[in-house]
Amino acid sequence: MRKALMILAFCAVSMSAFAQTFVIRGTRHEKTEAMKPTMSEFYYPEIAKVTPGDMATNSAPSDAIVLFDGKDLSKWQGARGGEAGWKINPDGSMTVNKDMRNGGGDIMTKESFGDFQLHIEWKVPENITGEGQARGNSGVYLQNKYEVQILDSYANETYVNGQAGSLYKQSAPLVNPCRKPGEWNEYDIIYTAPTFTADGRYRTYPIVTVIFNGVIVQNNTTLVGTTEYIGFPTTEPHGDGPILLQCHGDRSEPISFRNIWIRKL
């Protein structure tokens, strides 16, 4: 034991010395030179330049994929097949279509994603009715598996792991920064996709950060499985997946979305 401690101590001293000195080899007698600032400065590979979006309009950065620009739904499709049937409004937003007989229902991106940064804005209508989970309910499903809840949580009591900013039924938001009905809310979601073992278990779990109206409400939160309305999270091995926007079955007035973009990480 004593010998092992002496070895560890020697290693610690050697590492400390290495951190402060630099060995010059190739000379007749090797010598050590004091470290200089330039020895730990790196210039390659160069960092890609990205033009940020306009803060006044929350426009997308130059390397983002714009999923909805207020003009068309060409990047989206119906979750059950066919075209996305939501309504595009003159103000550049789109509104959920709850009429299942007329193109309504969930919509999802045509493209699939792994790790990403997602920006999305949503609004509960000013004339919203209902209460609890039946008041402005929707959701953003990451890889079509894990839901970031959307709900009117301005003055609406419900279970905490089901309010706006929650990872539905898994993690309640740290705080509630929801704006009142009729005002736009923003989500910025940073998502690290899971990996799986050969026998279908999680090797690494999905991790989610959610910034809600500029406030962190999920801070590198680990999900333990898929989102389930009844029961507990399950493990479903998967690869890249789409972003799905939920058309909830409650009877309240439908919510709207605008300015949706994503960056692959």
CATH structural fold name of the largest domain: Jelly Rolls
Q: How many separate domains make up the residues?
A: 2
Percent of residues in helices comes to under 10%
Summed over residues and divided by their number, the pLDDT gives a mean of: 90
Shape: globular
Total E-strand runs: 17
Q: What distance separates the N and C termini?
A: 47 Å
The count of helical stretches stands at 1
Instruction: Give the DSSP E fraction (strand runs of 2 or more residues).
Output: 25-35%
Please tell me the CATH architecture of the largest domain by its name: Sandwich
Rg from alpha-carbon coordinates? 25 Å
Class of secondary structure makeup: mainly beta
Instruction: Output the helix-strand order.
Output: HEEEEEEEEEEEEEEEEE
Taking the sheet with the most strands, its summary is:
8 strands, antiparallel
Question: What is the fourth-level CATH superfamily of the largest domain?
Answer: Exo-inulinase, domain 1
Uncertain runs? 5-19
- Under the CATH scheme, which class of the largest domain? Mainly Beta
